[in-house]
Amino acid sequence: MAWIYLLLAGASEIGWAVGLKYTDGFTRPLPTLLTVLSMVLSLALLGLALRSLPLGTAYAVWTGIGTVGTVIFGIVALGEPADAVRMACVGLIVAGIVGLKLVTAAA
Length: 107
Fold this sequence. Notes:
Pfam families: Multi_Drug_Res
Transmembrane segments: 33-50, 57-78, 84-103
Number of helices: 4
Organism: Chelatococcus albus
Order of helices and strands: HHHH
Low-confidence stretches: none
Number of domains: 1
Largest sheet: none
Helix content: over 70%
Mean pLDDT: 94
Main location: membrane
Keywords: Cell membrane, Membrane, Transmembrane, Transmembrane helix, Transport
Shape: flat
């Protein structure tokens, strides 16, 4: 269950990272509210995952999911570049996430 919490926490992190773009410096009430709620949800789920996952693994996976998801959102929705070097870097992050999962005992 801890890994499910962690995946959901990572997805929520994507939500608040993307949400920051739409808050316009926290001047738009609805995007700001949704972004803050996503932040709270992300941290709460991370806290639940940390009950049984190692801190270093959980934090690295959480930030990795957020980073990769945010980059993909930027490419797909915002027209950001998807050049080979950038995608190779994303691949390295994904490899790190998978590696950490493989070496961490199932929780």
